[in-house]
Amino acid sequence: MSKNEPKLSEYRIKYNAGLEHSAIDNYHYYHAYTAEEAFQFHVEVMSKKHAEAQNISVERFNPYSSEWENETPENLK
């Protein structure tokens, strides 16, 4: 892998399964190149399951700080 190739990152999508603000938030985890790609994977999975949800955020795991960093795309905010 060269320095210019994009690197896969771990993303998690925070969503709420209830359309009227359920008490519990859930997460789906994806490996993707960008936050937008991870969100698109999430949309496809929810569509295939015929599930509706409130999407809250997209976070990327930073392996150097061991923390999740908000990378929510503009179309989700």
Written overview of the protein:
This protein is of the alpha+beta class. It has one domain. It contains 1 helix and 4 strands, in the order E-E-H-E-E. The protein has a 4-stranded antiparallel β-sheet. Strand 1 and strand 2 form a beta hairpin. The chain is globular, with a radius of gyration of 13 Å. The N and C termini lie far apart (34 Å).
Q: What's the β-strand tally?
A: 4
End-to-end C-alpha gap? 34 Å
Strand content: 35-45%
Spatial extent as radius of gyration: 13 Å
Work out the count of structural domains.
1
Give the strand order of the largest sheet, numbering strands 1, 2, ... along the chain. 2-1-3-4
SSE diagram, text form:
Layout: E1 9-16, E2 25-32, H1 35-48, E3 54-62, E4 67-70
Antiparallel strand pairs: 1-2, 1-3, 3-4
Provide keyphrases for this structure.
alpha+beta; 77 residues; 18% helix
Quick recap of the structure?
It is built from one helix and four strands.
